[in-house]
Amino acid sequence: MITKIGNVFLQKALVIMFVIFLTSVGGGSKGMCAGTEEVYKNIEVLSEVLRKIEKNYVEGADPKKLIYGAIKGMVGTLDPHSFFMSPDEYRELMIETKGSFTGVGIEITIRDSLLTVVSPIEGTPAFKAGIKAGDQIIKIGDRPTKDFSIMEAVKLIRGPKGTEVRLTIRRKEVEQPIEFVITRDVIPIRSVRSLLLPHGIGYVRISNFQSDTGQELSKRLREVEGEKGLKGLVLDLRNNPGGLLSQAVEVADAFLDSGVIVSIKGRDQQEETTYAQSGDSARGYPIVALINEGSASASEIVAGALQDNRRALILGSTTFGKGSVQTLFPLSDGSGLRLTTALYYTPDGRSIQASGITPDIEVAFIPPTEGPKDEKRPVIREKDLEGHLEKVVGDEEENATLSGEQSRIQRLIKNDNQLRSAIQVLQSWEIFSVIERRQSRE
Asked: Does pTM surpass 0.70?
């Protein structure tokens, strides 16, 4: 039977659930007044069910487990990105935005009621195994994932370093399910890497948006810009599942001197608009941003801001289309609520929810002839992105000392047709700029 202490817990939990009901159902003060009576009726039904379980259930019931289950079920009716987290799950989520975690390295969501990979994190066991954006996870171990919540899936996929997890994947272009046995590892979240490519073109890869991404980007840009500056920049946002909104704003602001970055509208339809701050006008080189179906959320904010402000050409394939904003609410017992609270809009007023960012130049990724035949994602490896070159590759005096770096960069460009296209666009940009300057003098 549920003890007296359990009853006290149930009473407190009902109060918490009532507050959550008001937050998710009532919205502003008008909604709360209009819906309060109905909410009270629903709370009374829940209380009645709990009393029936206390009195009649064949075995003793853990009150905390009952309430957590009820809250998870309630939040689960809202949308795929809203969920309730136990104290352990909430702490794990907080760690994820700051440092590292142990698992396989994938970002997942619910799409069309199926557990779906948003993107594998670059350089992780899942990435190396060949997991792709858009893969549907139909089994974790021997457990079918039908009706799984995101947090239930995360709990099963993560585990101690060195242990294995079996994922059964359904992939659009493959008839039969594919089984992957992946060894878990510590997943370091290093969000920004850089290289200096030939012809004075910089390359910056942002793999996700964590608490220090904006600061790290500034550091990497200073390194590749050097004293000579850049003739152009490739900003790689492919397979970037997103992260912190504040860091997406900071990244976009690094390339914009004015204009809107993003607008957010909640249920009250009040618009919160974020503008670029002046001070970055010296960074005037042309930019090509790379996107694909694994680019989601915060990376779509950056791509949309650069596209609508005419600051960058967007090249690649249409993004994932996650245009909603989630807010984290810490709760009194250490648990947490992640709730979809708004939709975000690009500077031109586009909502990209479910539609994504369409590139200015559509270029499908073509897998290299060598390597696995079914590999259809950029093959930029972590080993290709370590460090950066201090001087422009191609200076004859450096050929002897930089041959290793040159070889690595040549291999990177050879295996990535989207990157090659971006470089060609930037080289053409320089040519047309020269022609334009000549015409202006005539």
From this structure: yes
